[in-house]
Structures are given as structure tokens and as C-alpha cells.
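User: I'll paste a sequence; please echo it back and then give the predicted structure.

Assistant: Echoing your sequence first, then the prediction.
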Amino acid sequence: MQEDTLVEYDVYCPYCDTLLTLLIDASQGSHVTWEDCHQCCAPIQLDIEVSLITGELDSVRVGSDDDVL
């Protein structure tokens, strides 16, 4: 993992609306992962999209445990 592939990205918890700053490794490519909220400990689903051409972070979709991303 190279430091230039790490991207800080702000999202809001879908449960308690707390602002979270995530550190996303764009070198992993597009993927789905889970992160626990630092405030309420609920599982947050993250759908991470990375450009195949540039390798840069395109988008992050956030969902609750019940959402299908």
C-alpha cells in the first residue's frame, strides 16, 4: 500500500448522523466493505468505486445494515 493511494473521505453514519472521516485505500480498486461507526458502533456498508483508468476514488455510497448497495 502506498501513501498516495490513501484518500480521506467524509461520510455521515446512516444511523446516528455522525460525521466520520474514513481513510480509503484506492489501490484496492472498487469493492464493498463494512466499517463500524465510531459513535454508535453500528455497521456501515460502504460501496467504494475507483476509476479503472485513473485509479482515483470516484465515489463512496453509504448504507445501513439493511440496505442493498
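The mean pLDDT is 90. Residues 3-63 form one domain.
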